[in-house]
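for the record, two folds in this file. i put them one after another cuz i was lazy. first one right below, seq on top, structure tokens after. the second one comes after a little note so u can tell where it starts
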Amino acid sequence: MQHGTHHEQHSHHERGEQHGEDADHSRRADHGEHAHPGHADHTSHTDRHLGQAGWAMAAQATLHCLTGCAIGEILGMVIGTALGWGNIGTMVLAIVLAFFFGYTLTLRSIRKAGVDFHTALRVALAADTLSIAVMELIDNGVIALWPGAMDAALSDTLFWGALVLSLGVAFVVTTPVNKWMIGRGKGHAVVHQYHH
């Protein structure tokens, strides 16, 4: 009789332990279910915030590159024309100077944040290379395809009209590229970190 009672208590104890484990497991599962939606909401909120900020940053980054490219292109055209160079030589000079001034503007802004020159140069190269390359490809592509634009003199309205339009098209095409890079923590997202 005592043996039977002891056996029942032992069985009940095992069931109790098992039930306790199930309860604990259930609590852990409920906790997991509770935690995941909250985490997802937080992630979704963060993604939305980055998405909204990304376009503004992308436009600003593209405008920054556009300024450097415009300075380089105009200066390259002026120098090439003054030296009597052909279209290809003048275009190459303009592209080189566009990269130079694009990098220089970014380098200057990062250096203002107190970053050493070597680090600032590395950041500028990583942040601007793709952006300037896309901009120069579109910009020079438009000018090359525009009838007579390559042969227009600096005093011609066609030269300035083609240049302004090509830079405008380059801005529109390059902004989504910068947005894509910023969304992945690259490009001007890296530069942005040094201003905060």
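(here's the note) second protein begins now
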Amino acid sequence: MNSLRNLFLLLISVSFLNSCYSFTGSSLKDEKTVQINEFPNNAPLVNPALSQQFSTDIQNRFLQRTTLKGTKSNPDILIEGEITDYSITPTNISSNTQNTSAGGTIQQSQNKLTITVKVHYENKLHPELSFDRTYMDEAAFNSDLSQSDIETSQVKLVTDRIINKIFNDIVANW
């Protein structure tokens, strides 16, 4: 009987807290529609699939994780921008070594993938929330990865991180 009473009090407490606080975490209140334009790749080094993949991934993030509906005319929210940098640079020689059949040693080196995206966010219902920002992220990887391995794993990792930052800045407004 005592546990039944405790359960009842817990349910009432949770109901009360839920009515006082929204657990959605979203700062989007009145906004109903979003337009996300394609992000062209204007980087000096062009990954041919990056523009389409990034644009699709950011559209999916907003349409799947918010109640916003996509539109092509008169949106409450406009998100657009461009990819301004895509670079692969050598970073360091690691302490990991491999012995060769000739008795020598080879030190493994690492490269770094960097992607930079410039974003224009316009909130027509709450213009004070609008912004222009640049987002950058990077990932280090062994230099023995092939170009296709870099494009399938490392590019996806970096673009997901950038999209998370953009999404949090717009939806969570932290």
